[in-house]
Design brief:
The chain is an all-alpha fold. The chain has a domain of 78 residues. The chain has 5 helices and no strands.
């Protein structure tokens, strides 16, 4: 592996001149006459653009919301599988039913689809009935 040293800077050439003592050289970059001034090149970003960027960051991401809703839906389906398995084996746990109720009731107002709202209502009703049965058996 060959390591090369630093490369020379292009576009900057020393100007050879004499100083007051007459023996030292003076370094000065070579600047073309038609070079733009710094004031002409630099321009500030309008404040409205910065405000728009800040406002955009505050808007919730639609894809993130969909991913969250999809994850919640999968969690509900997994819990419904646990409830089904519990019915088949003869025992549904309170923790499973309570967790199912909490997942069904989270952010219910965000659903626009009436069919989905009806399904969630039926799941909630069934979970409440099963919890009431467990409470009745425990009391009696």
């Amino acid at each position: 592996m060959k390591i090369e040293g630093p490369r020379p800077v292009e576009g900057v050439r020393p100007v050879r001149g004499r100083t007051a003592s007459g023996s030292a050289q003076v370094f000065a970059p070579e600047v073309p006459q038609d070079a733009p001034h710094a004031a002409q090149v630099a321009s500030g970003m309008p404040v409205a653009s910065v405000d728009a960027l800040i406002a955009l960051q505050e808007v919730p991401d639609a894809l993130r919301g969909r991913a969250k809703a999809a994850r919640r839906g999968r969690d509900i389906l997994d819990l419904l599988d646990d409830v089904r398995d519990g019915f088949l084996t003869g025992g549904v746990s309170r923790a499973t039913l309570t967790r199912l109720l909490s997942l069904v009731n989270v952010e219910r107002e965000d659903f626009i689809d009436p069919g989905l709202a009806a399904v969630l209502d039926e799941i909630e009703l069934r979970a409440r009935v099963e919890l009431a049965k467990l409470n009745f058996e425990a009391a009696g």
